[in-house]
Amino acid sequence: MTVLSVSNLGKIYGQSCGDCVEHTGPAVGDNQCPVCDSVVACADVDFELHDGEVLGIVGESGSGKSSLAEMLALDSDATAGDVRYDAYGGNMLSADYRAQHELQNEHIGMVHQHVQDGLELSFSGGGNVAEKLLAAGWRHYGDIRERVESLFRETEVPVSRMDDATETYSGGMQRRVQIAKAIANDPGLVVLDEPTTGLDVSVQARVLDMFRRLQREQDVATVVVSHDLDVIRLLADRTLVMRHGRVIETGLTDRIMEDPHHEYTQTLINSVL
Amino acid sequence: MILDIDAVSKTFEMHVLDGKTVPGLADVRFSVDEGEFVAIVGESGSGKSSLLKCIHRTYEPTSGTIRFRTEDGEIDLASCSDRDVLAVRGSELGYASQFLDEIPRVPAVDVVARPMWEQGTDREAARERARELLAALSLPADLFDAYPATFSGGERQRVNFARAIGPQPRLLLLDEPTSALDPETRASALELLDSYLPTSTAMIGVFHNYEVVRRIADRVVVLADAELQRVVDVADYTPEVLA
Q1: For A206, which of B13, B53, B105 is closest by C-beta distance?
Q2: Which of B57, B85, B103 faces A205 most closely, judged by CB atoms?
Q3: Distance from the CA of A150 to the CA of which of A21, A82, A184, A226 falls in 20 to 30 A?
């Protein structure tokens, strides 16, 4: 039932003086430690995610939301805390390299904000998705090809383009291929980092709708990070609001949007054009 | 009794106004039985929508309890976990807001069908039921597969109404769900509440129209300036003001 459980998660860039967390945060109004100049990307993050739930993480640039997403996807190391996935018995942060990779390959799907972080653009779209299957132990060429075709259909990418280089795809198609890759191994958790940034408005809506359909059908737990409140509103059941590396408010997404409590959240909601 | 609201208050703290507090509801209390229709009336700004939003937990009550008898036991909607609220929304607790709020580029029939298939109804069966509901609300059939973003206010409201009643929740909150409808369509909408929903369905609705209140309500809750004025049987209700 609980797919992911996070407590006291934090990440500090730089050689910490040991008191950076006390010296930073919303009360201070900065995330850089005045003593040692380290940057507290995020600190003291706690939440639990169950099967099928979608958690939104919203905040402005520099709030720590992307750092959090990268840690959850095991793309970067935390410096503090405890992260537990149901697919692994203990604290992920103390797991060895091999266990981390196994988890990353088979149980976590990540959709990156920058396509070049998620896809090898000179490879074919199909090849990018196949890579994820190979990492999870798929070996039979015919099976892989069949699975990739079915993932292309599910994410609404033309199967006829499967063998073309990914760099020849439109931005919307590239995002879909990333989603196809993220869900390739039926992961327990998908992390979406700014899933619609850089796409045309009309394409954004279709990508969101496609993802929401897949997410519900497969009941996959999802963390969606975005600065765009519309994205959060349309996808997330619950939302964390971040600022200066801390979670400052958490609640049902509609409650956060219509009855924001924290001063910063009120400003954020009132800033929508 | 399916819902018991006791001493519910809601205060908004406006940080942009230097922490000024604005009262939304003050010490509201009443209960609702299964199969009962309670109408909420009062002038604009009296707290009608705030009350529905507190029950739905779109607003978090500042104090008080909202005890909801679900099929799995009683929960306090004012204080239970977010996860508990999500679990009852849809199947047990439905809400038709004044405005349709959906992902763009989703056809009307899917907007209506989605909550049903998310409750586990087979996709085609949900679409079929969605078409029946939209037809009963006289939405032209050639609009079923069009995007609601291009619809008129009344057409969008019909989609919204159909979406809210689709999953047949045990408690349905209606926030002026027929305000943009012509009298004929409004009558069809109210008829649909009778014919489509089980008789045990409890409903709480905000209405501005006295005729509507008289036709469908069992009891009337009158709000003024965020406070509960009185709760009366509909037969004893005479409106002083229905702005």
Answers
A1: B105
A2: B103
A3: A226
- Contacts with A255 from chain B: Cβ below 8 Å: 57-60, 82
Q: What is the pLDDT of residue B16?
A: 83
Which residues of chain A neighbour B13 with C-beta distances below 8 Å? 261
Is the whole-model pTM more than 0.90? yes
Interface with B, mutate which of A254, A258, A264 (most B CBs under 10 A): A254
Q: CB contact, 8 Å: B81 with chain A? A: no
Residues of chain B short of pLDDT 50, as ranges, are 242-243
**3-class DSSP state of B26:** strand
Once rounded to an integer, what is the mean pLDDT over residues A38-67? 94
> Is the backbone of residue A56 left (phi > 0), alpha (psi -120 to 50) or beta?
beta
pLDDT tens digits along A85-140: 988 888 888 888 899 999 999 999 999 999 999 999 999 999 999 999 999 999 99
Does the beta-carbon distance from B53 to A258 stay under 8 Å? yes
How far apart (Å, rounded) are the C-alpha atoms in residues B96 and B190? 14
Angle between helices A171-183 and A125-135 (to 10 degrees): 20
Phi, psi angle pair for A81, to nearest 5°: 110, -170
Q: Can you tell me the distance from the alpha carbon of B134 to that of B215, in angstroms, rounded to the nearest whole number?
A: 22
CA closest to A205 among chain B residues: B104
* pLDDT surpassing 90 at residue A209: no
Q: What is this model's ipTM?
A: 0.92
